[in-house]
Amino acid sequence: MQKKQLAYWWCQFAGWAFYGASLLFFTWVFHLDLSAIFVARILLAMSFGLVFTHLLRLIILRLKLTPPIFGRQWLQLFGLTLLVCIAYSYISSTIVEWLHLYDPKIKASIPERFFLNLANDSPIILVWLSIYYLWHYIENSRNTKIDSVKMESLVKELQLKTIKAHINPHFIFNALNSIRALVDENPERARTAITELSNILRSSMQAEKTETTSLEKELSIVKDYLELEQIRFEDRLRVEYEIDEDTLDQQVPPMMLQTLVENAIKHGISKQINGGLIRVISDFTDSHHELIVENTGHLNGASNLDGFGIASTINRLKLLYGNDADFEIKNINGNMVKARVILPVTAISFLK
Q1: Helix (H, G, I), strand (E, B) or coil at 282
Q2: How far apart are alpha carbons 195 and 231 in whole angstroms?
Q3: b/e map of 157-183 (b: 16 or more CB within 10 Å)?
Q4: What DSSP character marks residue 104?
Q5: Is there a smaller number of Cβ atoms within 10 Å at the N or the C end of the chain?
Q6: pLDDT per residue over 195-227, tens digit each?
Q7: Taking CA 107 as the corner, what is the angle to CA 103 and CA 112, rounded to the nearest 5 degrees?
Q8: Within 10 A of 144 (CB to CB), how many other CB atoms are there?
Q9: What confidence tens digit (pLDDT) does each residue in 219-253 have?
Q10: CA neighbours within 13 Å on the CB side: how many for 211?
């Protein structure tokens, strides 16, 4: 607030000084008489202009007529400005008369001088008012844009945190179901599964600290998850990795790849009597980073598309990358489903 006040007074003094300097400049240009009385009148006009425009500002603030204003407020502003112009012209005319700041040869009465000043000086006050309101409208527009950006950023942050909060409980629920199925059948494998789950939880807790993580870290979570699921599915689950090593430094949303793999297990492998294949692919394609999860199965209409895994992936990509990322899921080769994520490439991979 103090900075704004200081800037206001600097503008006030500079503006009225410029007004006085302009009068002197045009007097010199047109070779007019630059008498002591004329200089005194200019100094009086500058001083009165500063005082009365500041008074106008105080009343505007008091009556809450700062922009934006609507309807009857414009009439209030017009009436207020007219009163200030009248007061300015009358008081300045009276002071000129008292101090004898006029040429006796062309002396005018106070009423005559009042109307002359009202016609000559009112436009200056109107110019000041226009600049004052224009500045306020620009300031309001700038603040509105800043608030809009802050609000948009806050909404995105809250949405991302909400999505993350759903991802981890969703994954934990499925993992615990896998362990529960092993407790009675094979306690040793159940203990191994608990160790794998511990590793996954540790990794996922670290992942929540950032909006993106390296593909290498994301793959470690995926591998732990698939090793845990292989304990449950045994020979019914086959896993293949086709990872371009140059993509390991690429940034990806944490837990996103794991969510797609989990979705492939839930909607694909678990519904196949003989199980099937999970293939994870990472490569560069057409200046983009391409992540693919393929699984044995078949898309069952819209039911697979409405699940949390797909919805969370689409939402996160939109929030983090806007139109720079894309996602698609479709049937391929008759008995396979392909989930494909297109991400922007980070430059670090090309610097290695």
Answers
A1: strand
A2: 12
A3: eeebeebbeebbebbeebbeebbeebe
A4: G
A5: N
A6: 888 877 777 666 666 778 899 988 988 998 898
A7: 130
A8: 10
A9: 988 998 898 888 778 889 999 999 999 999 999 98
A10: 12
Residues in Cβ contact with 248 at an 8 Å cutoff, skipping those fewer than 6 apart: 214, 215, 216, 219, 282
Q: Which of 224, 313, 310 minimizes the C-alpha distance to 267?
A: 310
Q: Which helix (H) or strand (E) is 344 found in, with range? A: strand 336-344
| Confidence bin at 351 (pLDDT 50/70/90) | very low
Strands 237-243, 276-285: parallel, antiparallel or unpaired by DSSP?
A: parallel
What are the tokens at 219? 């793959």
What is the SS3 assignment for 31?
coil
CA angle, corner 165, sides to 221 and 276, nearest 5? 40
Which of 325, 316, 317, 275 has the alpha carbon at shortest distance from 295? 275
Element (H, E) at 134: helix 110-183
Q: Which amino acid is at 123?
A: P
Q: How many residues does the chain have?
A: 352
